[in-house]
Amino acid sequence: LQALDFLHSNQVIHRDVKSSSILLGMDGSVRLADFGLCAQLSPEEDKQSSMVGTAHGMAPAGSSGAHGPKVDIWSLGMVTVEKVEENLLTL
């Protein structure tokens, strides 16, 4: 969440948050990677209209028109659900 907060406070949206773009360090640290689809927003235009990203974790707003930082939060939520489900299956 800190990485997304930093991006969003600098008017940047990641647009492709998925499990493969979240890196876990041996020390338990978590890093966000894969910034190739980031978009710079402006104060005048706080949404993007281009549709990019991985369809599986894409927010409904991301596929239906203009979208902003909320798409990253949605995608992070999808990754969280995915990881919880994986862990439940291995119990």
TrEMBL record:
Keywords attached to this Swiss-Prot or TrEMBL record, sorted alphabetically, are: ATP-binding, Kinase, Nucleotide-binding, Transferase
Q: What is its EC number?
A: 2.7.11.1
Give the span(s) annotated as Disordered. 46-66
- The lineage's top-level taxon is Eukaryota
Task: Please list the GO terms describing molecular function.
Answer: ATP binding; protein serine/threonine kinase activity
A Pfam family of the record is: Pkinase
Concerning Gene3D superfamilies, the annotation shows: Transferase(Phosphotransferase) domain 1 (1.10.510.10)
Sorted alphabetically, which InterPro entries does this protein's record hold?
A: Kinase-like_dom_sf (IPR011009), PAK3-like (IPR051931), Prot_kinase_dom (IPR000719)
Q: Which PROSITE patterns match?
A: PROTEIN_KINASE_DOM (PS50011)
* Domain Protein kinase span(s) in chain numbering: 1-91
> Coiled coil: which residue ranges?
none
> What PANTHER family does this protein map onto?
SERINE/THREONINE-PROTEIN KINASE SAMKA-RELATED-RELATED (PTHR45832), SERINE_THREONINE-PROTEIN KINASE PAK 3 (PTHR45832:SF11)
**In its UniProt entry, what is this protein called?**
non-specific serine/threonine protein kinase
Top-down, what is the taxonomic lineage of the species of origin?
Eukaryota, Metazoa, Chordata, Craniata, Vertebrata
As recorded in Swiss-Prot or TrEMBL, the protein's gene is named Pak3_2
